[in-house]
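Internal tracking record. Fields below are filled automatically when a chain is submitted to the structure queue. Please do not edit lines marked as system-generated. If the sequence contains nonstandard residues, flag them in the REMARKS field before resubmitting.
Queue: standard
Priority: normal
Entity type: single polypeptide chain
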Amino acid sequence: FLNSIILGGAYYHANSNGLGYYIWPSLVVWGFDRSLRFIRIFFVNGGVLTLFSTKSSPFLRAKIEVISPQFLRVTVRRPDYFRWSPGQLAYLSIPRVSAMPWETHPFTIASIDGDIPRAAAPESPGEDSSSEKVDLAESEVASAGSLSHPGYSKKLVFLLRVHDGFTRRMLHAACSPSPLDDTFNAYIDGPYCAPPTVRGFETVLLFGGGSGVSFILPLFLDVIKGANTATNSICRRVVMIWAVRHQEHITAISEDLLDALAGVTASLQIDIRIHVTAATRNSESDAEKSEGSISSSETKKHKILDAPCVRLLSGRPDVATVIKSEVAEASGSISVNVCGTAGLAENVRTALRTVSTASDILHGGPSISLHVEAFGM
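SYSTEM-GENERATED OUTPUT FOLLOWS
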């Protein structure tokens, strides 16, 4: 909208001086781009179906979960024509909380396109597991249409840090849902950006701070997917380090991690370190809470912390020590990916400069690829 005002005003003033031919080509290009975007939004969000059905809605349905007053998880059922790569972003609009009908905001997609197949487990001679496979298939089919089903092929997940404006209005709307429906009309536009590929590296290091986990989580899941399907068999080790302010934020990714770790191949070494940077709150109410009163989300949170490859640590991560240790043990190429504050990104850059030089690579050291995804927290 603002672009149209600027271009229209520029053309008006330039044309009054006989220079309008410098401006109108920009108007044509801008209009063509907006038209293509509108057509894509129309197709991606199921607009074609609404032309032939009176029961179809031109909107998707979004579920907003309040992880904490500072953290939200938004789940949208994936449109049939929407495909994306790990680490890409999409523009999200929820008319009920948008200040203007055309208000959209970019958010990184925290899920991956497609389910993560479980690694094939060797069967004992003479063991008959056909009945178990049938039961598993039936349970997957029964829950395939559910919005909360952990299958990644059925949903788009966004993990949002609450700021003023759009995300703050989302928080207020989620805290006061409609008594008839707790989901919201939404539409998406995307995907956008060219994220790095983590396939083809022997070691993958992922550093995330706060909502930066929405970028490193799909890369982590893609590594597991590639290892399970033998499309990325070269990868031997993946390390994911997430610095988060409060422990309850772990709930935002616990379901995804549990599902991915359940069937990971034994050839892939996984190390997940979650650093809680804020002081732990030990209230009397928490101490007196009975085991039976723990919610399902809290139970999942504790389950993921019980996984042998997951460690819960306090304080900020020692990036230099982690990188130095991983580089010393690696023999092949290393992919380092960062998404967080400027301080976290600078710490990673500084650590890499001290442990990897051109001379080290010439003498047989591992080659390192660095990708930094910057955002404001």
